[in-house]
Structures are given as C-alpha cells and as structure tokens.
Amino acid sequence: MSATPSRVFISHLSAAAVFDPVGDQVGRLRDVVVALRTAAQPPRVLGLVAEVTTRRRIFVPMTRVTSVETGEVITTGLVNMRRFEQRPTETLVLGDMLDRRVTLVETGEQVTVLDVAMSTGRGRDWYVSKLFVQKGGSGSALRRRRGETLTVDWNAVTGFERPEEQQGAANLLATFEQLRPADLANVLHNLSAKRRVEVAAALDDDRLADVLEELPEDDQVEILGQLREERAADVLEAMDPDDAADLISELPEETAERLLDLMEPDEAEDVRRLLTYSDDTAGGMMTTEPIVLEPDATIAEALALVRNPDLSPALASQVYVCRPPTETPTGKYLGTVHFQRLLRDPPFTLVGAVVDTDLQPLRPDTALADVTSFLAAYNMVAAPVVDEDDHLLGAVTVDDVLDHLLPEDWREGAVDGEPAGVGAAGAVLAIPPRGRRRAP
C-alpha cells in the first residue's frame, strides 16, 4: 500500500482498469461498496465492484486490493467470480451517494453530494473520509446552476440514513457520460429500481432511447412506465423502429395504443407495420430505416450517408437501390451495393451501375432459422426484406438475429453456477465461494 495515495476521490476511479499483479487487466471498476455506521463513525469501505467479461459484476474485497490510484486499481489476482449482489446493509458510492441531498450539521443548510473521498486508516483499512458538496440548487440542475462548493469531513453532514424521494442524477451521469449505451445500460440495470428510474429520467431522449435498446425487457417496461406518456412517446420515436415495436409489444394493449397515438404519424406507422409480423421472422426483426437510394444517385452520395455516425456498422455495410419512393415500403427493389464496392469505384459512378443482383432478398415471413442460414451462408451482416411486389420493407441485421438467438438473460452476463472465466493470461483465479463472496 506504500504507493497508494492516502485519499482518493471515488468519481476519479470510475471505469478505472483493474489489473492483476503481472499487469493483465481483470476488468473495470464500476462502483465502491461501503457500510454505513453511526454518524460519528465514517463508513468502512468493504470492496470494489468490478465489471469483467460478459459484463458480469463481481465483488473485489479491499483485502485483495494492493494499490488504488486514479486510472487504475491493482489486485492480488485472486478474485471470486460469483456475481455481485448488493446486501441491504451495503451502500454503493456512485449509485447511491452521489447527488444525495444532505444537511450540514453546523448550519442546518442542505447541500448536494458531488463526490466522495476514501482514505486509508490503521491496519490498511479504507473508510469514507471526505465529501465534496455544493450549496444551493438541486441534484438535477447542478450542472446548470453554480453554487459554492466545499470539502467537508464525513461527520460534518447528516442525512445519509434517510431515504430520499427524488434524488438527482446529474453527477452520477457525469461520472459515466463516456460509457457506450450498452455499458450505461448495465450500470442502470444494477441500480435499485428507484435509482434506475431517477437516472433514466435525467437522460435526454436520444441517450435514453439508446440505453433502453440495450436493457432487458423488464427494465425497459419499468422505466417507460415511469415516464410521462408524452415523453415516453418521444423516447419511442428516438428508438430504432424494430426495438420500439419489441418494447410496445410488451405493454398492455391500451397503453401501447395511447403511446402510438402520441407518436408522430410516420414513426407510429413504421412501428404498427412491424407489429403485424411474428417476432421470430424477418419482418419482425427488421428495421424499417436502412440506407435507400434511387439508381441515379452517385457513389459520393452513398458514402455520405454511410458516414452517418448514428448508423450501426451493420446497417452502414450496405446501400439498397430502389425506384422511388425511397421511404419504406419503397418502389421496386433493384439490388444492393456493398460498402466495399463503394470504395472501389469512382465517386461520380451511379449506384445503379454497380448493384449486386445475385443474392435474392428475404421475404417478411422468412423464419429465424432461415435468416440465420442466409447470413451465414453468404457471409453477410445485413439482408434486404421485400414483399411479394418487390417493394423494400426494411433490412435484417446480424445484431437483430443475435438478439433472438441468445438466451433471454444474455444482457445480464453469464449466469451463476456456470464455469467462471479467467483473465487475459489466466492470471485471474475463480475460487469456489464460501458463502456469497467470501475470500479464502
């Protein structure tokens, strides 16, 4: 512990790499677990929550941590791979303590927690020592409204022991703002139901839509049900139509119909059309918003559309050439231009001159097994879906297919009880648990 700073602000550890003694990365730090005690005694740091392969979260006791610095944590290399489950007596610093409204003992003034510092004590124990707080404002508005900030001792405030009805989320989101949607979704999934709704409410519509697409269905329905119906409709509009249709199909019929009525007519029409297809067919899995161009468009125009950062790599791999109209359902489907072909021909070339007409498109009633076989046989990451009159309806991508092939709980990582994984060089040893997560 000699190289470890005596005090570390925990938000600076967010997403820090967790290494074993030989330098192989075990995972990334997602939170710190503490045990609240009496007001006079600072909370003791029990350990770290690290996210390893398959987004599984494990508990790393502080007795297994040899060094803590901003940007990295070094462990002994011996960890228990059982999934972390928060106990009622435990508190997560990032998940539960940031944005809390607490009271200064000396003045009775309310302040909001911006950050929490932990320090080493006797016997190499860690405990919460300082709080970085802000006067005035509310948790949800802190990033817009400046107030006096100060660092205080733990025992200078009170209020952590009381539940807070409407806790803000600005600082928690600031801590994780660089995360990909799938990783932020995993953060939300592991929060309490109350905190999950608070954090979701603080996200803007586009970010929340991206995160919802990565969450298990139960979490999607729970979060959407806590939003005002007008905002829920806005979020559904921001989602990919196929994901929005999947979510709406899980809602009560009356609720689903109200939300569809509140959506923009064009957006709602796409979703209603998808809902007419069986979930495990090409029509039920496809997105209705692929890249579509008329045959007299140029390769330069196609490349400009492919560069759109909001497109998934699978959707950006192909351009579909159709007669007008180019909104789905389109005019007659003429063929596909693959991304590699776009790179080989001059920018002024018309896409109608380079279409691939060899591969037959899929029909909307094509079964999941046949869609999978098609993508595998032809090494494709996307495929067009057309109706009996050769109108393009949408495109099925490999990620849509994987969503239907993987177990329902795949987003939650590997299930307890299966063989545990090892680190990059086999240095992380999974040890049989004695109890829930006790180190040997």
General description of the model:
- This protein has 440 residues and is α+β, with helices and mostly antiparallel strands.
- Helix content is 28%, strand content 23%.
- It contains 15 helices and 20 strands.
- It has helices spanning 93-97, 170-175, 181-189, 193-202, 205-212, 217-226, 229-238, 241-248, 253-262, 265-275, 282-285, 299-306, 339-344, 368-377, 398-405, and strands at residues 7-9, 17-19, 25-35, 44-51, 57-61, 65-69, 72-75, 78-79, 91-92, 101-104, 110-120, 126-135, 149-153, 157-158, 292-293, 318-322, 333-338, 382-386, 392-397, 429-430.
- The strands form five sheets. Strands 2, 3, 4, 5, 6, 7 and 9 form a seven-stranded mixed beta sheet that branches. Strands 1, 10, 11, 12, 13 and 14 form a six-stranded antiparallel beta sheet that branches.
- Helix 3 (181-189) crosses helix 5.
- The longest helix has 11 residues, at 265-275.
- It starts with 6 loop residues before the first strand and ends in a 10-residue tail after the last strand.
- The model is unreliable at 138-144 and 414-440 (pLDDT under 50).
Beta-strand percent range: 15-25%
Main β-sheet description:
7 strands, mixed
Q: Please report the number of helical segments.
A: 15
Radius of gyration over all CA atoms, rounded: 26 Å
Could you say which overall geometry the principal axes of the C-alpha atoms support? elongated
Share of helix among residues? Answer: 25-40%
Total number of strands? 20
Q: What's the end-to-end separation, in Å?
A: 21 Å
User: Unreliable segments (pLDDT under 50, ≥5 consecutive)?
Assistant: 138-144, 414-440
Mean pLDDT comes to: 86
Please state the structural category.
alpha+beta
